[in-house]
Specification:
Blueprint: H1 5-18, H2 29-46, E1 49-58, E2 81-89, H3 95-122, H4 125-129, E3 132-140, E4 145-147, E5 150-162, E6 165-177, E7 189-197, H5 201-208, E8 215-225, H6 230-249, H7 252-263, H8 271-279, H9 290-306, H10 311-328, H11 333-350, H12 357-371, H13 379-401, H14 407-430, E9 433-435, H15 437-462, H16 467-492, E10 498-500, H17 505-524, H18 530-543, H19 546-549, E11 558-561, E12 570-573, E13 579-582, H20 590-597, E14 603-607, H21 613-616, H22 619-625, E15 628-632, H23 641-652, E16 657-658, E17 665-668, E18 671-677, H24 688-691, E19 695-700, E20 703-707, H25 713-722, E21 730-732, H26 743-749, E22 753-756, H27 769-777, E23 781-784, H28 785-788, E24 791-796, E25 799-804
Parallel strand pairs: 6-8, 13-14, 14-15, 15-16, 20-21, 21-22, 22-23
Antiparallel strand pairs: 1-2, 3-5, 3-7, 4-5, 5-6, 7-8, 9-10, 11-12, 11-24, 12-13, 17-18, 18-19, 19-20, 24-25
Helix pairs in contact: 1-3, 1-12, 2-3, 6-7, 6-10, 6-15, 8-16, 8-22, 9-10, 9-11, 10-11, 11-12, 12-13, 13-14, 14-15, 14-17, 15-16, 17-18, 22-23
Length: 807
Amino acid sequence: MSAWVLPLVAGAMWAGMLLQPMLGWLGRGPAGLGAGFLTLLVAVWVAPTRTAASIDGADDDRVEGGGEFDGLMEPVHAASRALRSARRHPGRGPPLVVLAALVIGTALIGAGWWSFRSEAAASSYLARMAPTRVGLEGVLRTDPDPGQFGWSGMLSVSRAVSQEGEVALGELVWVQGEGQPPAAQRGDRVFIEGSLDIPEEEFGAYLRSRGMGVVLRGDTFRRLGPSANPVIRFASDVRDDLRSAINELFPPREAGLLLGLALGDTSQLDDNVRRDFEATGLTHLLAVSGGNVAMVLAPIIGLGLVLRMPRWGRLTLCLATVVFFVILTGGEPSVLRAGVMAVLVIGAGFLGRPGRSWPILGGSVVILLLLDPFLAPSVGFQLSVGATAGIITLSTPIAARLAWMPRPLAAATSTTLAAQIGVAPLLLSYFHWIPLVSILANVLAFPLVEPAMLTGLAAAALHDVWNGAAVFLARIDLFPLRMLQHVADRLATAPIPSLTSAGGATPLVLGVVVVLGVVWVLRSGHRPPRAAILGGACVIPVFVWASALGSGSPSGLTVHFFDVGQGDAALVQAPDGANILIDGGTDEDQVAIYLASLGVKRLDAVIASHPHADHLEGLPQVLARYPVGVVLEPGCDEPSPSYEAFLDAVAAEEVPTRHPRTGDVVSIGQTRLEMLGPDECVSGTASDPNNDSLVFRLSYGEDAVLFPGDAEVESQQAILDQGGAVTAPVLKVAHHGGDTSVSEFTQAVDPQVAVISVGGSNDYGHPVPSVVESLQLTGAQVFRTDQEGTVTVRFAPEGITVESDTS
């Protein structure tokens, strides 16, 4: 069988699952499966057949190309032989027909299998029962995950109890509850009572893509005990023991990082460390993958050889180790892929038929998609396969071109580059950016990861046996763990540009084309013609937002009012090079990506107008990724999770903080911020946090913009009573255009341009018609981010110009 058949089958099946809605009735359940199998029969019928073979020479069909399992198996001697030549009947159709039938048939099978499983989830017994109150008994598939409004997780249901009686089931359900997560972990048997509901449309589509049709909003949670499966129970005990030992031996930050490196457990990972790893492209180190599997298997294989175990004994030991490690680390998509690949490599090697890397990868994808088609849309699974494909295909040719480097450095650099190229289209499509600093970060982190993980695990294993040795090893391990944190922290804010895109299908498709071109050039050794190079240069701007191509200081004061939904975020850029960010929107990453797309390298000031989540959520990521000169915020004691996370990020990045008050003037280069409020932290108003908003008039020469935050009637009236100058040609409308403003305040500002930062179809009715009418009565042009997208206001000698995503 050709080395490319399995990867082709895997890709076709995967594509069929993802494109199933576009295939109509042909991709639905039995129709898709039936049509797919018939098409495969056609492919078999028209394909050429092998009839005879002669055996000569040794088989050279082995894992190659820098795969992540190189060196995992003991050397396989020339005991196995391969089919070196064969007579073929020519078949009944041309090769392209066979290829097309194979691809189409596999894609239809994938679509039909996906449809069958997803429709079964949507029309399950519990889905037909909803909405109702029910008690569900089952096994937790994930650890209860804390969130802003409670906790959530997945439950594999075995029994349902309701007014209609009791029934045995086998369904997967999304569960969520209020307050802190319950004292339970994945694998535990639990009983949860609550209301069973069909989730809302967007959330429902997401759950169905993961095999779930209902949500249980639990109000009663009872842990029944550990898993009934002895292997899972043993893995849970080992995980608990390791976690307990690591927490006792290491400080909290290092313990959280070690748990992520060794077990993929990020539940204790410090938020600032997580953000630094995200900013430098090191998060893959916290997802268990083939490298972890190889490091676990290597000593097991060595142990089997030292004990002179028979061949099948070593095979059994290795397979058991892989299965146990997958269970121990939680069965995330990346470890499932790595585990299945390891099983195929081990099995093929011990049978004397070591296989090529591409068929091994393709076979693992096919197996996993057949077992769990809901892995198809999983971003984690896609990134894992993409990175592995990049390593298999490109690491060897890249390493050959880096022969001038020391061999370990060339290996680390080539592996990093190959993996980055493999996932680049996915990163641009899903996350809209690629931090180019990740290449340097991964090279520097490479020699630290293995000693940090292995020394830490050795310390944890010795904790109950020889505590003195465990403490000694833990102290040694602090060096690589802290160096990893240091590398991530320093490089996160390095002035190295990022590759950004608007996301969606375009960068994915074009990215795949570019990656294929890179693969062809590197593996063939040919130089592409000039026309191809020029064509590639023309494609590059597609991956970089046009604004980044013209990055640099503007000729006049420029304000970007970002489209962040129902929240606020604006970037002010002055001709003297000053960059000032005001608020951070509602999404953790969105504003940081906007800044990268504009070519911003540093921020002279970050202003948090007040401590509400719709203004703060994105600021911790901004602080992690960009050097910041000073933070301005009200400094009022109004605790909230978002505000506490923001203050923690400010402290972690050691950014100076100021709490300006009425009458203060903050100068940033030639830009002046005249503070109009608050005079002091207020109390007793309808919304104290809103009325504590920093209200200021930002000016550069004669050009000015008024930023009132979410100041409401009380704050606006106090500013009017003080008689301060509030006039400005541009106004950021307070509180998303809500009915909380004084019309006299708007008249006093007398804006030419008014921008309302607001989310479409929000639950608050923002902006209210009366506020829009009041703005229009002043003669102002009104722009809304829910209608125009990001709005950019530019001051020029000839006047104010306004651009938007729709203009």
